[in-house]
Every structure is written in C-alpha cells, then in structure tokens.
Description:
The structure holds two protein chains of two kinds.
Chain A (H helix, E strand, L loop, with lengths): L11 H30 L4 H6 L13 E8 L4 E10 L9 H17 L7 E2 L2 E2 L18 H6 L4 H10 L18 H15 L10 H10 L6
Chain B lengths: L13 H32 L10 H32 L7 H24 L7 H6 L11 H24 L4 H16 L10 H36 L3 H22 L12 H12 L1 H24 L9 H24 L3 H7 L3 H31 L8 H35 L4 H8 L2 H40 L1
Amino acid sequence: MAEKKASVWTSISFWRRSAAWVTGFAVILLIFLTFDTMKQIRMGTDEELAKGIKRRIPAPTVVNYKIDYKYDEKRGLEAPVIGPEKQPLFGKELSPKEAAAMLHLGKLTVQAKNCMDCHTLLGNGAYYAPDLTKAWLDPMWEKTMPAMTGAKSKEEAMVKFLMHPEKYPTHARMMPNLGITEKEARGVVAFLKHMSSIDTNGYPRGFSKTAKEFETGGTYAK
Amino acid sequence: MLSSIKTNVIQDSPSKKLAMMYFRVALVLFGAQLLMGLIAGLQFLYPSFLYGIFDFSVSRMVHINALVVWMLYAMIGAVYLMLPDETGVRVPVAIGLGKLAFWVLTAAVTVVVLVYIFIQVGPGKESTIWFINEGREYLEAPRWADIGIVVVVLIFYANVFFTYLKGEKTGIMTVMVADLMALAGLYLAGMFFTDNISMDQYWWWWVIHLWVEATWEVFVGALAAYGLIRVINAKREIVEMWLWIEVLMLFGSGILGLGHHYFWIGTPEYWWEIGALFSALEPVPLVAMFVHVLYDWGKEQGHADAHGKGTAIANGPVMAWISINAFGNFLGAGIWGFFHTLPQVNIYTHGSQFTAAHGHLAFFGAYATILIGMMYLGIQDSYGIHRMKATFKSKMAMFLITFGVVGMTVALTIAGYEQVLVERAELGAGWQAYFTAQNLPWYIQAQIWREIMGVVTFVGFLYLVWDLLTIGKTAKAAEEA
Lengths: 222, 481
C-alpha cells in the first residue's frame, strides 16, 4: 500500500496519525475535566458548613449536623439536606480536628476490614450485602436495631452491631465478626454519617420513599 | 506444557521460554479464581457455609484478585511470546533480569494470597494498608506489593522497550509498547490513601476503567493482530491498518467513557452526558474487531481454497479462541455494558447483580479467551508443531467454558432484573429492600443456576488444563509419524 496512494482510507499512516490525534484529544479533555472535578469534589471546610455553603463533599464536621435525603423538585432527584439543626454524633459536638481524626480512623477501618468485598460504597464494591451510601439514614437504624441491640441511640446501636454483628442477625446472611474495636466502630459510624451527606446526584433513587413507607407501615415495613 | 521446559525448539528462544513460565502460573491462578468463585457463589445459597472462617469477603476478594493477576501473567507471557517474532530479536536485551522479575513477582503473589487467606483483615491502621489489605475492590493488594509490582513491571517494560528499539519496529509492536506504558503508568493512580471517599473512587476508576475499557482492549487488539498473522497468515498491512483504526475507536470512546463511572460518586452532573455519549460508543470498535477477525479468516481461507491448500489455519484452538474472543468481547463488554451504561438506567442498576453479569461475560469474552489462545500458540512454538489441530479435549474446554460463562451471565442478568425492579424501583433501596429482593424465589433460583453454570465452567477448565498438558506432545508425535 505504501507504493500506490490509491485512497487515504487505505493509508496506514493516515490511520496512525488519526489514532494519535483522537487519543491525544481524549486525554487532554479528560485531564481538563479532572482538574474541574478535583475542585468540585475536594472536601469542604467547617466555615463553609457553618455558613450553609453547599459542597458536594462536606467537611468532616458535617457529623455535627442533622442530615436528611429529600426529593429536590428542581433537580428531579433526591439530594442531601444538611442542617441547619445540629445533631452531634454520640451527642457531643466535635471540633474540625476531632471530626477529621474520626473520619480518618473510619475510612482506614473500612479499608482494613475490606467492607467493599461484601457491601457497596457509593454503589461500588460487591453485591453480597446492602449498599452503604446512605446507610446512616436507613430506617432500620431508627427503631429496629436500637431495640435489638438494647442501645439508646442510633449511633450506639451501630457501634454495638459493628462490634458483634453475629449477635444481632437480621437475616440468614449475616455479617461476620471482623474484630472491630469500639473506637474503630465509632470511626466507621462517623464515616457512614459523612458519606450520607455526599451529593450523589440522586443515587440511590427512591431511598427517601423507603424511609417514608417504613414509617407509615407500608407493604414491606417490618 | 510442563514438559516444554525440557523439550527442544524453544530452548532456542529464551523469550518464549519465559512466556511459558508466565502461562503456567496464569493457569494455576485461573484455577484458583474459579474455585473461589464457586465458594462465593455457594455462600449466596448457603450463607452459613464457611461463615466466620472464610467469609464471602475473602472468597470474593481472592476470586477477583486471582482473576486480575492471572490475566496480567498471561498478558506478560503473551508479550514475551510475540517479542522475538515481531522484533526479530531472538533474545530480549535483559532476559536474565526478566527471569528474576518473574520469580520475584511469583513469590510476592504467593505471599499476598497467603496473607489474604490466613490473615484476611487487620486493625484500622496504616500498617494494615501497607501489609495486609488495602480494602479497595480489585486493588486489595497491600502497598508493599503495589511497589513490588511497579518495580517488576518496570523491569518487564524496560526489557520489552529496549528490545523493541533494537529490533524491527512493526505497527503491532509500536501499539504494544505505547499501550504497555499507559497500562503500567495508570497503576500509580491507585496507590494512595485519602479520607475523601469520592476522591478515592475517582482515582480508583482511573486504574480499573482505563485498564479494562481502554488499555487492555487495545492490548487485545494487538494480540489478535499478531495471532491472525501467525495462525492464518493474514496480510500484515491489512491487520496493522485495522489495528490503528481499533486504537482510534477504542481510545476515542474508552478514555472519556470513564465518565460512566462518575454518575453517582459525588462527582458533578456533567459526567452524565460525557459518560453516556462516549461509553455508548464503546461497543463500536468491538463490532469492528469482530468483523475484522471474520473477514480476515474468510479472505485467507479463500486464498487457500483457490490454491487447493486445504485449511488456512495453522492452529485450530488458537483460531477458535480468537473467534470466541471476537464474539465474546462484543457481547460481554459491548452489549452487556451498553445495557446499563446510560445514567437514566444506571441510577437503578448501579451496584446490582447486573454489574456482576456484565463483569463475568466481559472479562471472559474480552480477555480470558484470547489469553487462552496465546497459551495454545505458546505450545505450538514449544514443540515446533507445523499445524496444530483441536483435539476432543480442546473442543470440550471451549464448549464447556463458554457455555458455563454465558449461563452464569444469563442467570446473573435475571437476578439483576429481579434485584433492580424489586429492591430499587419498587422498594427504593435500603437494608430491608435489599434483603426482600435477595430472598425472592426467582432471585434464589437465578443464583442456583449461576452456581450450576459455575460448575460447568470449572469442568471446562479441567478439560483445558488436561488439553494444554497433552496436546503438544500428541500433535508433535502425530506430525512426526
């Protein structure tokens, strides 16, 4: 083909150059979008939170606030609603430093215990156990689990369950005991509460509906 | 395959000998992957099976890690196999170092697997991330192993790169060398810790997606090109032109197709449109690859017929596996991927058995198939066989493995429908919603079929091993007789 230039469509060098240009263009666009996304998904600050400035990923001190997940008419999907009321984790308001330390321990524990190979986080992971994206807001933690574990609050119930899941089975498929300490469990609870405040563009869809059905005693409410 | 260490022809080609070493370990890990899959599948049906001893998280982790690692082994093997043929350089520049890297990598993989199996999890400290488990799906390997992998891969890459520079620079090898650099570099994106789960997932996908939906696909394109030249004597100019078109389409769609993983992880809404558009284009090159393989096959067979030469195929099993690859890649990665790639659908299907269905058929169709083909090609070279025909065992392996994986995929797709409609659409996710769907009879039935089809796949694997261990000797003896 090299000797006769019959058509550009059968020219190897044309396709080689096109492949290079297209790949280059795609890479540059990806890098450009990555810079923008990095700005948008950096963790917010405590000041932004106090002023009510919305960030896609709020500061760790979001655990001091009440978090909800509500249908947003304008966006046509559910979005997190943070505050303005406070609802401190374990009843104690945390400083930015304390909250960050707790979140750090929680994230480390989530990785060290390999949560992702049974559960999904933000929908990624394995499909053997429920998605944890909005686990903090799951109606099971409102009454059922505190009653089962004999805990006074949702946070305490979560800690007890995480430390000894084998003692509180809800279904035949049970979470194993992973040797999570009390401190680690509290970190995981902070991590879960923080994750529930992330703006996930409405995933999981219909989650707030479940919560409502659960309260009003819908078909599948337990 | 084992006796090829001692036999004849490839004594002359240290590169191909090293390739066979990689293939052997790949096959062992492939077996481990299937066994772990069977355990994990059984745990769906009997949750108390090995509960507290070898939990689902462990069997699943080893299942997917063995998958990735056996594929990387087979990929490295395939590169060492093609290196002397493509470059014309008989001995890679640093073959001794290449062998050392093989042993170091194999030792490291062994340690990592033993730690996964016996230690499993650690305390919530940095030391766990460094020495036990990084806890990020597919990239569970602890940090020390990450660094080790990078070093070993650099040695491998240097070997390939400098051999390439020394020898003939074919189009196939040029694509391979460029692609391997991207592939190796991307691994670095998965090697840091952050408290920000969205940031974590953003970079995690750079490794996972840009591997399996971009660089690995181009790798397969290069392997298929090499395979077609070797097996049906396809014309290099045609094959290489196709390869550049494939690179254009695969990278053109696959790189920004990354956006379809950024719909729901805290990243901005514009990824909906970018991800939808480019990932919807991802099946196009897979159609092209399919057409390309069948076209070349038909063309070369036509030539052979015209000259009264009988079959154009120099290696039956390789051609069959390349054809299964063409079809499986399009079906598994293309169709099953497209099923749930639009955000309008994905908001319901994200993180469900749908993903598992797609994953099974795509990894098999796009990668396992062609890498198995490369193993057969390696055996042909090991024994210096002129024309290698598929045996009964080769055919049983092809049929049972393909049937088994397609069966698992169909079963998981049905489970996925069930889960998506009941858990997501009807009940709106959540803990109770999840288990209500998991306990429905139709869902359980689908999981039973998945396990049965898993066993079928495993039997096919046994045939594959048996065939690989015997086909070379038999074919050589038949040819000499």
